[in-house]
Design a protein that fits this description.
The protein is of the alpha/beta class and about 400 residues long. The chain contains 15 helices and eleven strands. Strands 3-2-1-4-5-6-10 form a seven-stranded parallel sheet, sandwiched between helices. Strand 4, helix 6 and strand 5 form a beta-alpha-beta unit. Helix 6 packs parallel to helix 8 and helix 14 crosses helix 15. The chain is globular. One of its GO terms (biological process) is monosaccharide metabolic process.
């Protein structure tokens, strides 16, 4: 630890001892700073950490999705900030970091919302000397811009860009999102040997599933199955995905790993980890599983041979990922696909009728009406026939 950091730490402790009403529990409870924390994965993680009595500082734009205004907002310190703008403009965050309310060191920074390397750089600069470990939520999309040289499950060491500049640029054009997520990882890796370097862990996730998903992908598929007789477009899967297994991961399982990584030893430092279910269903398997969970007779699934065939899973082309490394070093033991399937289907079935979620439900219905049918009124009729939900009232206008 540098001399300047020792001085800063001494100064903070001295101030804490000299102010009678300072919050002394900050010294005994672990404190994490979370960028994001209000989406599917972020809210699951925040709730998991709250159950373990962590102090939580949440940095996001202030959008409270689903019921997070009730389940999360009252129990965290929230600072409004837009990561797409410079953190220098987030006066509330800067004021907090150097206030008596802030700890001398954050036990972890958990970053759900960095999609550009400059966002990582700004975070490290602003919080220099105050981070014990940086946990970055990455994606299996990073492999899309890398030169995988085998046909097996994708492993962490496959995240190697092509050496030739021309080939590297060609790969970048394939997946801008994957390129930017890998750039974020590269930014973290490039600073670890600096005097002020911060240990990091990157979690590479496939498509995340669970309750309260803002992408609505699962819910759209579930309603496409449940309301199939009221939707013009037949239930279908692109031809190239018909027999292709895919990796998915459960939000609550990732939240559990994050909670554990905060206190793990140095063996996980500066490493990337794949996380996914043990099971690797095809999209066809996924749809049949939803039918089973809804207790419906099998519905015909059509093969869509068109170039622009509609699909929401999977979001990558390389196929499933290998989680052996996570099982060895992170004790990764995911919930069974069967249990998550039935739990998630039950949540979205209830959410159709739950007035708390009427805004999210209407968003899903609107997407179905715009992209999967020629007659929007049939979908409204299906909602009434299947769920006894009538759209068109004061709160249900589409």
């Amino acid at each position: 630890m540098t001399f300047s950091i020792w001085i800063m730490l001494f100064h903070w402790i001295f101030r804490a001892e000299s102010v009678p009403n300072v919050q002394y529990d900050i010294l005994s409870r672990k404190t994490v700073l979370i960028f994001g924390g209000n989406g599917l994965l972020g809210s699951a993680t925040t709730e998991r950490l709250l159950r373990s009595n962590f102090n939580i500082v949440l940095i996001n734009r202030g959008n409270w999705y689903w019921d997070t205004a009730d389940t999360i907002k009252p129990f965290v310190r929230h600072l409004k900030c837009d990561r797409m703008q410079s953190l220098q403009r987030c006066s509330g965050l800067q004021h907090y970091i150097w206030s008596l309310d802030a700890p001398p060191m954050f036990d972890a920074v958990i970053d759900f919302s960095a999609y550009h390397p400059f966002e990582i750089t700004e975070s490290l600069t602003l919080l220099q000397g105050k981070i014990k470990r940086y946990i970055y939520i990455s994606s299996d999309s990073v492999y899309e811009v890398c030169n995988k040289t085998h046909t097996g499950l994708t492993r962490e060491e496959d995240a190697v860009r092509p050496k030739e500049d021309k080939e590297r640029e060609q790969y970048i054009l394939k997946d801008d999102y994957g390129n930017r997520k890998l750039q974020c990882e590269e930014t973290l890796r490039s600073q670890v040997d600096d005097v002020t370097g911060v240990p990091f862990v990157a979690l590479r996730l496939p498509d995340v599933v669970g309750a309260r998903d803002n992408t609505h992908r699962w819910w759209i598929y579930q309603l496409w199955v449940k309301l199939s007789e009221y939707i013009d477009k037949p239930l279908s899967v692109p031809q190239h995905l018909w027999n292709r297994p895919m990796s998915l991961v459960y939000a609550n399982d990732v939240a559990e790993v994050i909670a554990n990584v905060i206190t793990m030893g140095p063996q996980v430092n500066d490493e990337a980890f794949n996380l996914a279910f043990n099971e690797m269903p095809t999209l066809v398997n996924f749809l049949h599983s939803i039918m089973d969970a809804l207790n419906l007779d099998d519905i015909d699934i059509h093969v869509d041979e068109s170039v622009e065939a509609f699909h929401l899973f999977p979001s990558v082309r390389l196929g499933p990922i290998d989680t052996s490394k996570s099982k060895k070093l992170l004790n990764w033991n995911p919930t069974s696909w069967h249990d998550v399937l039935y739990e998630t289907v039950a949540f979205y079935e209830d959410a159709v009728r739950n007035v708390t979620f009427h805004s999210a439900r209407n968003d899903v219905i609107r997407i179905i009406q715009q992209h999967l049918t020629r007659d929007p009124a049939k979908v409204v009729r299906g909602l009434w026939n299947e769920y006894k939900v009538m759209l068109g009232g004061k709160h249900d206008e589409l």
